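Run folding on both entries below.
>entry_1
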Amino acid sequence: MSGDPCPWCLGHDEYVQYHDQEWGVPSYDPQHLFEMLILEGAQAGLSWLTILRKRKGYRKAFDNFNAERIAGYGEREVSRLLADPGIVRNRLKVASAIGNAQAFLALETGEGFSQLLWSFVDAKPIQNQWRTLQQVPATTAGSDAMSRELKRRGFRFVGSTICYAFMQSVGMVNDHLLSCPRYQEVASLAMTEKS
């Protein structure tokens, strides 16, 4: 890769790998979108590096983000999760993952989770053109709207900042800096990714 990668990913191998392989790549798969929304919510108040390091633990603890299983979790599963060092052991975040799974399933029987989420960018990734990290917003009108709608449908830990980080991670917006080699790679993927 020639050029300078986005500065936020430097210093940790996990960040570099995530940046180079996943961040900003358009995803339309409902299960992957569900996983990323849960992980972004788990990050609240923490660093993304903490969550990346616990991602395998989350997949194991939460049945590989199988929403049908998670939606049926009761007190026994909650107790198990709150004792699991492989995840962030926060009762509110665990409860929100269960409630979000239930809200996800309700959407999947209707218009579809992926379709709803992508509607906030008119089903097409937004290609931003930032030159510095300082230009990248924490929220946008789109993330505000997504947050409101997800809350209305029963999702939790989906504030606008969380929603914008989610939009970045799943390629709804391309927030790689223009100087980053991944900018053009991700922009090209945006043209071909959706089947």
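>entry_2
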Amino acid sequence: MLETIAANKSFGGVQGVYKHASDATKTAMTFSVFVPAHAKGAKLPLVWYLSGLTCSHANVTEKGEYRKICSELGLIFIAPDTSPRGEDVADDDGYDFGKGAGFYVDAAQEPWAAHFQMRRYIETELPAIIADHFPADMKRQAIMGHSMGGHGALTIGLRNPSTYRSISAFSPICSPAQCPWGEKALGGYLGDDRASWREYDACALIEDGARSDALLVDQGLDDQFLTEQLKPELLEAACDKAGINLTLNRREGYDHSYYFIASFMEDHLRWHAARLGPAAR
């Protein structure tokens, strides 16, 4: 049962927020969807946007400045939450683990395994809901994200090349196995066996044979997390070795905020639209 929380007309389309009971997380989950104006019966390509640490669906929905260009290009834009939530959901004192920090993994360790099944939620459960309730062409999907969500977009996209035609990221955590955020999250959710971490690390996935025709990444050079946590040079090296066409835009003066994301959101959406093909509007 899909509950409509809000529906607002914007740029001729509808920006909605929805809630449902998730089988994957065993909690209520909230997500937002923007559907541009379209002809009756038309099916539209869609772009998934995965958010970062401490965020929910609301951050990009309120700050991402994507609706005008999605209306022009005929793109559905979907923003899921970043973790399960609720009083019975395990949490941590830090901002980088627990609620708001699901890292798009299927947790194997207790107490996290009971609810933190974000990989299954994003890859399987939510797409089925989108297909059933929205005018989405599920054969034309793209995925993008920011920071922790950039990690999610890269890993989910690389693991599912037949599902997503294009992959991009803003300020992604490029190798969680090689940064403090990722070591805490992957160790906590998955356990100490670092071999099990590899399917959640974009650089490791590429080393192990995952491929994409092209990747687009934008990274601000004034990002306070650049050196310790994000490490785009590791992704650059992995793609170079594997022969993957990576466009890595290093943006002078930009930080980790939504001011940065909003500045280059149009570039990413146009890049995805070119790979998704024209919308049947």
